[in-house]
Write a structure and sequence with these properties.
The complex is a heterodimer of chains A (334) and B (340). Chain A is built from ten helices and twelve strands. Chain A has an eight-stranded mixed β-sheet, with helices on both faces. A four-stranded antiparallel β-sheet of chain A has the order 2-1-4-5. The radius of gyration of chain A is 21 Å and the shape is globular. The radius of gyration of chain B is 21 Å and the shape is globular. In chain B, β11 and β12 form a beta hairpin. Classes of the chains: A alpha/beta (334), B alpha/beta (340). Chains A and B meet through α5, α6, α7, α8 and α9 of A and α7, α8, α9, α10 and α11 of B.
Chain lengths: 334, 340
Amino acid sequence: MSSEILLEGKSLVKYFPHGSKGIFGKSDGFVQAVDGVNLVLRKGQTLGIVGESGCGKSTLARVLTRLIEPTSGNIILDGRDITKVSGKELQSLRRDIQMIFQDPFSSLNPRHSVGEIIASPMRIQNTVPKGNEKSRVQELMELVGLNPEHYNRYPHEFSGGQRQRIGIARALALNPKVIVADEPVSALDVSIQAQILNLLEQLQHDLGLSYVFIAHDLSVVRHIADEVAVMYLGKVVEIARPEVLYSAPAHPYTKALLSAVPSATPRASHMHSRIVLQGDVPSPINPPVGCRFAARCWKAQDICVAQEPALGPQSFTSQPEEGLVACHFPENSN
Amino acid sequence: MEKIPLLSVENLNVEFSTPDGVVHAVNNVSFAVESGKTLGIVGESGSGKSVTASSILKLNSGVTAKTQGAILFNGRDVLGADDKAIRSIRGSEIAMIFQDPLSALNPYYTIGNQIVEAYRVHHRDVKKGAARKIALEMLHRVGIPNPEARIDEYPHQFSGGMRQRIVIATALINSPKLLIADEPTTALDVTVQAQILDLMKDIQKENSMAIILITHDLGVVAETCDDVAVMYGGRIVEKATVNELFLTPTHPYSFGLLGAVRSLDNSARGELQTIAGSPPSLLHLPSGCSFLPRCGYAQQNLAQCSSVVPELGKVSPTESFSACHLRTEALISLKMKEIA
């Protein structure tokens, strides 16, 4: 855990105005998509972010990659505050952070050949002389397990798993330091998911990449991440190493989320311990004042509704490697 | 005495003619479902599971689709039925739930309107007011809080999980004998998925409805199904009870599929088990076994595997049926060698 910090998010907040009437109308509220998130990604490691739809994980990915501006907070890459950089500086920054998207069908331009798709980041950034472009593209294709001879083919000629490999090759084209992968395998079949996850791990090992890996599938994140952050309604409610998080979740929401995952063992005893949460995730427009999970939590007491729990160690005695939790009554402390 | 199944599908073949050639979407598929039981159909995308399901309601009868075989529902021939007869079955005796609840609901009508319509299509003599009462009851049963206030709202005013509950309410309003659920929870979050699966199980218990659950998620199968059919390349490659499939899989594709899932569930970090390659194109199915190009066991028997399509046959000592030329003993000895 001692390796150096590469990317850091400090109290990141992203509010989207909601319900404005007319062009000049004042908005009457904000969607609090990301609300005070602190994250640390270390060199050569993978930070997993899990949560249900609408919890703000994709917004967070966009804020971290500077695709959208945070409302407040700071993003620090390699010791440098990149929250406010713009223009030329921002363009060269794009080389260091690349993204892999969820849907390999809509994230590739159907009118461009694979060669053009993978070469486009290099052309935009002008990193490779025109003459070397083809050989660099073919090298990348080989790296991600595609046949380099398919350089001139179009995306529709490839299967879903192969398309995702094209997306990965494109992300690697600029030798980035960080790759933010937003649900990179959720559109793929299980047998293909495993192939892509193996590829991502292999690339991390060979090229020393660092990943921010966003997924709703807990088993996928468990496999790939060095540290997992669980998000609920714009907040990180728990952050821990996977060995700790999956065996002894501290936040009631994490516990419920884990128990809801169907296990591939028929009629397992696990079924009896399933916690079925009542109701839905509250609206992020006017989130609850206290703990955002309080309305669905079986342990909630008066303090939970009144006061928001801070993300911190479970108790005064716990070690930092046991992870952080934002709960007044965490699971493991009695 | 053998129990007469509620639904039996015999040698179903479905082909689609496309500009690129004939797509053999379903090939020689046979299965049966009994009342009160849940049959899971699992497979990767493009394995023919959804087409199989929609054939049961005769939804593939366009100009380009060619369906052959026999489908018997409650002793009646479905494929031979005329439009009027099939319409009286659709939505009343056999109901269907689709993957995406937002596109299954019409955004221009209130949810009450849509549920009442589904009911009155099959009960023409029931007045609107009475039908609305039945719809309210149904909404209450599928767990929509405060249905009296929400029945006049539009689909966009509901969350994903609530919408899927509304779709289920619409499907169940006529107390169907068979419910076909095509990836009913794929578009939902895990905590909501758990709610919806529990709801379906509760309703099944109450009225001993049969369910065909189509999914690619083996976890969902393990928790809800009694029997499972594994499809690959438009064919059923293995048919077994849930316990048998998960404890003693008999087809190499099932090994691979379970391996990929198990290694994900497992905490150990390391190389994941995968099935190399990708599924076959249904335009050009291989002449022999369609799994051959991805199979790790075929070298021993290449001549037969590459020329003859394996039949679904019983695998002793289990009760499973598997479509593989290599029978259990041979496979087990090969697997042992692999481990050693």
